[in-house]
Amino acid sequence: xxxxxxxxxxxxxxxxxxxxxxxxxxxxxxxxxxxxxxxxxxxxxxxxxxxxxxxxxxxxxxxxxxxxxxxxxxxxxxxxxxxxxxxxxxxxxxxxxxxxxxxxxxxxxxxxxxxxxxxxxxxxxxxxxxxxxxxxxxxxxxxxxxxxxxxxxxxxxxxxxxxxxxxxxxxxxxxxxxxxxxxxxxxxxxxxxxxxxxxxxxxxxxxxxxxxxxxxxxxxxxxxxxxxxxxxxxxxxxxxxxxxxxxxxxxxxxxxxxxxxxxxxxxxxxxxxxxxxxxxxxxxxxxxxxxxxxxxxxxxxxxxxxxxxxxxxxxxxxx
Length: 319
Prior knowledge:
Layout: H1 5-8, E1 23-27, H2 53-66, E2 70-74, H3 84-93, E3 97-102, H4 115-121, E4 125-129, H5 135-142, H6 146-159, E5 170-174, H7 185-200, E6 207-209, H8 216-225, H9 228-237, E7 252-255, E8 261-262, H10 265-269, H11 305-308
Parallel strand pairs: 1-2, 1-7, 2-3, 3-4, 4-5, 5-6
Antiparallel strand pairs: 7-8
């Protein structure tokens, strides 16, 4: 697979510094039941990386020690980690708000038939990928049969009270199908709500539009098609200074499946860790009340233009 990483390291992106840490975004492993074209993790069914129980316990200790209020779980399919459910239960017992970045189709995997009920019982916020309300566009990105299973999954979540009860948030995620920026989030959200309600009688809370990052699998596709430089030019020419104040890396730390720290999930995939003064990778056990990384400089690269282009992009949608 072609690698865009060497092209991203030398950058003129403006310096960024971390503010107050509010969120731990944790990658529980790279195994997934899907292999999506736009995936920046290069996740798939054959990946074996998975967080151990020892690291899960270290995460829970850090949440309590630092008083962090949000645990954002991702992967791969985070639910395929064998310790996903104990982690959710323990975090909720600490009063932490838990987000599950769910691909929806995971609800119908053989060992996950009760997953939707588990998420509802623990009041887990579901952030679910549905890159378009059109079947053709979804299956071009994510594979045959994914669209219908995604609709079935949303129906199931709605039946359990998601998007109906204030404590059960269901947000959808849109990604462009190619080398382009997402359309305006507010207008697209209205289209999604109208189309999904009229076609399938399903509802959701918010739509998050997220720019595709030129790394891992999507970066390789851009290079293979000869579209990489044009896409980077689009991102850089669409740069908005106003987005710098609200990029997600200013309030978030990304934790990889081994417990090492990164400024964001994209840096994690590019192997750009947070380093201690001695040059060693920082681990979740290194964070204590006196070292919360506030005011530290964030590691940046050319891919950071993806978060600041146009309306901006974060794991919570447009900035």
